[in-house]
Amino acid sequence: MNILQSSLKLLAICATMLLFGPPVAADTVLSKLLPKLAAGELVDGADAFGTIHPDIPVVQVLKAGERIGWAYITSDFVSTTGYSGKPIHTMVAIDDAAQVIGVELVKHSEPIVLIGIPDAKVKALVANYRGLDLVAEAESGGTAHKLDIISGATVTIMVIDDSIVRAGLKVARQLGLGGLVVDEPDAGPQFEINPDAQAAPDWMTLEGDGTLRRLSLDVGQINAAFAAMEDARAGKRALTEAPETTFIEMQAALVSHPAIGRAILGDDVAANVQSWLGEGDHAVAIVGRGLYSFKGSGYVRGGIFDRIVLIQDDVSVRFRDRMHKRINAIAAEGAPVFAEADLFKIPADSGFNPTKPFRIQLLVQREVGAIEKVFTTFDLGYQLPSQYIRAIAQAPAAEIPDSVAAVTSQTELDAQQALWKRIWLGKQVEILVLGVMLTVLTGVFFFQTFAVRNERAFYWFRIGFLTVTLVYLGWISNAQLSVVNLMALFGSLVSGFSWQAFLLDPLTFILWFSVAAALLFWGRGAYCGWLCPFGALQELLNQVARKLRIPQWTLPWGLHERLWPLKYMIFLGLFGVSLTSIEQAERLAEVEPFKTAIILNFVRAWPFVAYVAALLIAGLFVERFFCRYLCPLGAALAIPARLRMFDWLKRYKECGSPCQTCAHQCPVQAIHPTGEINPNECINCLHCQVLYQSETTCPVVIKKMKRRAKDSAGPDLERFVGHPNQKLKIPTT
């Protein structure tokens, strides 16, 4: 029995790795990256790394055998997710006085740094953090240092800055460096939101009692701040408006508190906000007016608001587009007119405590050259007034038997399970929509004869389904599968396996599971033809091209057949590179246009955008050009396509000889001139099944209809004429 269980477990692990790509090891980021790093490149004069601390992921930095500091990867301590949605791994070394003695940007996936900004420029900026005093940062709340930013990489640099400071403080406190100690748990009274509290109905009172907090800066203050900078160019580019002119007046309030939300937004909008927020989420309203925008004109959908960040102790929250809603009207009496009014969601998993003080940090920029800017920051402090919170009664601690404590204590695995379960609960709507899409598509495939009976209705159904795939799955949910997952398969065999890594992204998990099932029933076409956002984009654009009468090119069969192998060659090449360097393979996987067109919404360096534009333009003339000849993911899915259990697509014996109708009308030329459908190339669009029943196009169906008409006309004519030997009598008048 144990052998059977072990075999089943091993089989499940192998199947999961095949379907979902590489698992994430349970090891720390430090343990993974340390063998590739050199101590001398991190800290001047260092010659080796020592042993790793037994309790936390930090390693000794040695010089002549003596420890001169501790090194760590910021991602092991704080969230370092950048614009790309992936972690930015920065290695930092600090000495016993809690001074930073070395910084190195180790690994990242930031598109703005990979393309367009020299790597040396970013590394030089990161190196400037040497000498950072973490003791001073602890005393100032992380604002004792000057923030340097590279124009065009604002979000990336701010994430690096934030991670260096916050991770450094955590490490210094845990190691007791520089006299810093771990913060003791607050033994005093604990507080919570008081849902029964009431808020004043007018703006002036809300300002007076601290419900609303303000940051007001005039032109004179801004000019003085930039004039005090080391870069003399900042002072020379002073604003010319009168010094008393309002540069920005920014006000904030925690509107997730029911009373504050109703007072500022009105009952209906406040109720909508509460439904928008998940369990444990909070929301802050920020309004502003003046010369400067706290959102910025450079903000784009899919990106980050790079001018504001919420900071509370070691917690920092950067707001993305999905965490944002506009405020159309302010309900509080006497509210001023603001140029901007917006809501920002604070996720439950950020660690934010609404009863404690926090601040909104505003980044102010000034151009000092054609493409150069300098930056400074200002803080809007906020503390929820006492009338909106109440003390939590401390329950006496119950004595828990050791046996019970051993069972109920939460392990790291329990914490990971709680995390992915919380993520799934927070994405119930997205999961439901995807579930409905998969259910509908499965029904169409199982009952395809009925589904394709009405040619026009099926055409518009497919157009509608592809639109939902592109807009919802692609641009809104970013549920675009990639060959990168499959490329890293063999790299994962040497690391530990964890289900938790796959469950953290519900839509991707469900899609991979559905692809695995579809490969057994229908082949690759279920995903490529219906659920791939970039494939949907190509087909929808081609349909527009047809409406505009753009000529459609049908490649000669010989040329078309020789172009098929290109995508398989690309996939095998990427797979081979991944065996030696998964990072290099990920870079080469940019042959997939998915990241540019779907994930980053074309907000990327021009070579990437130009490449995607070229593919889409080619697709206007040759439908699904990229899918046919270049897609490595399609090639990877096509390899097991012949393992499908059924042939669902119906064919007549006349198909291919002599009839070539389906072959000529197949959108991707997946039907051989001899009539066979190539399962490796078929995208299951079901157009051939529409033709299979067409009474106006299919010669076989037309012939059958004529035969039936003739057979049915015979008896009727006989009844009308009578017996063959009987003469027909024509009545006379």
From TrEMBL:
GO terms for biological process: positive regulation of DNA-templated transcription. Keywords: Cell membrane, Membrane, Signal, Transmembrane, Transmembrane helix. It is found in: Cell membrane. The chain crosses the membrane at residues 431-452, 459-477, 509-527, 603-622. Residues 1-25 form the signal peptide. GO terms for cellular component: plasma membrane. It comes from the Bacteria. Residues 646-676 form the 4Fe-4S ferredoxin-type domain. One of its GO terms (molecular function) is DNA binding. PROSITE patterns: 4FE4S_FER_2. Its main location: membrane. The keyword Membrane applies. PANTHER family: ELECTRON TRANSPORT PROTEIN, ELECTRON TRANSPORT PROTEIN YCCM-RELATED. This is Regulatory protein NosR.
